[in-house]
Amino acid sequence: MAKINDNYLKLKAGYLFPEIGRRVRAFAEANPQANVIRLGIGDVTRPLAPAILKAFHDAVDDLSRVETFAGYGPEQGYDWLINAIIEKSYNKLGVSLKTSEIFVSDGSKCDCANILDIFALDNVVAIGDPVYPVYNDTNVMIGRTGEADDKGYYKGVVYMPCNEDNGFIPSLPTEKVDIIYLCFPNNPTGVVASKAELKKWVDYAIANDAVIFFDAAYEAFITDPSIPHSIYEIEGAKKCAIEFRSFSKTAGFTGVRCGLVVVPEEVMGTTTSGETYSFNKLWLRRTTTKFNGASYPVQRAAAAVYSDEGWAQTKELVDYYMENARIIREGLKEAGCTVYGGVNAPYIWLKTPGGMSSWDFFDKLLTECNVVGTPGSGFGPSGEGFFRLSAFGSRENVIEAVERIKKNLK
Ligand code: MLT
Predict the structure, then answer these.
(1) How many other C-beta atoms are found inside a 10 Å radius of the C-beta of residue 339?
(2) I need a surface site. Which of 263, 292, 355, 400 has the fewest CB within 10 A?
(3) 6 alpha carbon to ligand 1 midpoint, in Å?
């Protein structure tokens, strides 16, 4: 019989969001009259912006004519999209990048997982706790960890607790690590990091020959002008950081699928025999071998985000969700909750009332308010006693959910 990759058996539970989906479906089947409002997974609800939709339609039409038909594109993305990304997302921050440093993909979740292919297994990784579960689970799957302990910490991983005491910003590891995951604005806590904070991490990475995986999927939701949108706003970061970005939340592409990775040519690693080698070259090799590029219409739609119209319409979408975040945040505060996030991020992180466990609070909200959120403990042991609400619902649902929660908790 063929052998399985038994690293998968080390995983303690199913992936968080399908597990929540399963519980919600069971509740909805048993209570068909309940009007369940879903503010769990960060899935967008607004339609694509008109300029983006038009570009998408036009690109599909291109496929209907011999003269404009597109077959395989460049595996790492079309230059017209990459150049728009560089100009509109990076140059305006004072960051210059080469086209060869950007890789367009079918989404950031895959990128965060796939990047592990080009790093040796004996690298030590540091991961926040709580954290987007993909970072942790993909390291388990690839075989970088041992078994989990009773709390859910996997042997071999350096966990960086993020709690109220440190403002949910991890402290620098006290031991030497090789790979550091950072996500700002943070999923799940919604906190952001200042330039000074990120500088500490860049300095650590340079001093320790480490690489930072910087997940900037939520950068579009930053409202405070002093907060960096990209790790490359920090001097030296091009030597030590790989950045992930996504069109999912920014432009409503959760179903369309498009993301990108920035792998600067200066980010170097070492071979087993001690020579330095560029991660950019390895990522290009991996991408051209394992991927045939995001689809042509999707890339055309993504490029339309950077048109004047598309940019303005995308901003309106972001503002819509951020107003939802404000409504949730203010409503929960009125209900007496301690809340974090929701100012520069579309997630609100609240302390469960009365010290309830995260899953007990999940059950309470589901059964008593018919509102779905995400238990903080699902993001890691330090998330216990916290709960995440997403601002990506419709305005109507967000207002209704907040009213129900307020009534229930008062
Ligand atoms: C989340 O809810 O944390 C995200 O939607 C998950 C994702 O982006 O994959």
Answers:
(1) 20
(2) 355
(3) 26
Q: Ligand 1 centroid to 42 CA: how many Å?
A: 5
- On the question of pLDDT at 82 being above 80, the answer is yes
Pocket lining: 313 vs ligand 1, CB cutoff 6 Å: no
The distance of Cα 61 from the centroid of its chain, to the nearest Å, equals 32
Residue 42 near ligand 1, beta carbon < 6 Å: yes
Question: Cα(183)–Cα(166) distance, rounded to whole angstroms?
Answer: 16
Tell whether the model's pLDDT for residue 137 goes beyond 80. Answer: yes
Is residue 109 in contact with ligand 1, taking CB distance under 6 Å? yes
What is the model's pLDDT at position 309?
98
Q: What would the pLDDT profile of 308-351 be if each residue is shown by its tens digit?
A: 999 999 999 999 999 999 999 999 999 999 999 999 999 999 99
Quick one: pLDDT at residue 19? 85
**In the CATH scheme, what is the homologous superfamily, with its name and number, of domain 6-47+311-409?**
Aspartate Aminotransferase, domain 1 (3.90.1150.10)
**CATH number for the segment(s) 52-308:** 3.40.640.10
How far, in Å, CA of 85 to CA of 305, rounded? 9
C-alpha of residue 69 to centroid of ligand 1, in Å: 34
41 lines ligand 1 (CB under 6 A): yes
Q: Which atom of ligand 1 is nearest to the CA of 188?
A: 3
Asked if 302 and 251 count as a contact pair (C-beta separation under 8 A), the reply is yes
Residue 319 CB contacts under 8 Å (≥ 6 apart), including other chains: none
How far is the CA of 344 from the CAs of 111, 234, 321, 331, 370, in angstroms?
Answer: 24, 19, 11, 17, 27
Global pTM? 0.97
* Domain coordinates in residue numbering, the chain: 6-47+311-409, 52-308
Q: Is the CB of 187 under 6 A from ligand 1?
A: yes
